[in-house]
Amino acid sequence: MLKIEQLELGPVQTNCYIVSNEKKECLIFDPGEEENRVRELLKKRDLKPLAILLTHAHFDHIGAVDALRDFYEIPVYLHHLERDWLGRPNLNGSGKYAALPDYRIKDADVLINGEKELVLGSFRMDLLHTPGHSPGSLTFSFPEERFAIVGDTLFRGSIGRTDLIDGSETKLLQSIRTSLLTLAADTVLFPGHGPDTTPAEEEKSNPFL
């Protein structure tokens, strides 16, 4: 059985998720900032990370990527449509805000192209391309465990913003309806910000849907 732990990191409290198994292996999703807090949690739990997985490449999801990648010597996975975003502040959004430094992260080690099953160690997950918030937004679904990490595609009672580069409300709503709401109704959806939800709850009460 997998265990999932959440850390709220960085200036906009982005959710970073640590998914671990009984072998003490883990995956790191969206380490937005504060690499020391991630390392402290992994040390406390005696976990060995296998990879960093990014739902997308906006600045608030990538700030601690290089520090953690270099410390643990693990690969970073990202959708190929955002291959240039990590190192370009005008694309990852950090260049939009004068109060923020420019985020320039090294290239991803593995570029994801197409929807498929991804296997890392004993972890098995379905990759769902869910564009709209950004062109390469990914959902990492664990159907046997009944949860999915959805990034900024869907929130409890809301949806991701679409006013950033290459955002599209039409594509976002299509992604939600065809990829997320078709998951098992009780699947726990873990978003990039805020509390978790389920497809059943969002179909019933989300005013955007």
TrEMBL record:
GO terms for molecular function: hydrolase activity; metal ion binding. InterPro entries: MBL_Glyoxalase_II, Metallo-B-lactamas, RibonucZ/Hydroxyglut_hydro. Keywords: Hydrolase, Metal-binding, Zinc. Pfam families: Lactamase_B (PF00753). The keyword Metal-binding applies. The keyword Zinc applies. Its cofactor is Zn(2+). Residues 13-193 form the Metallo-beta-lactamase domain. This is MBL fold metallo-hydrolase. It comes from Planococcus halotolerans.
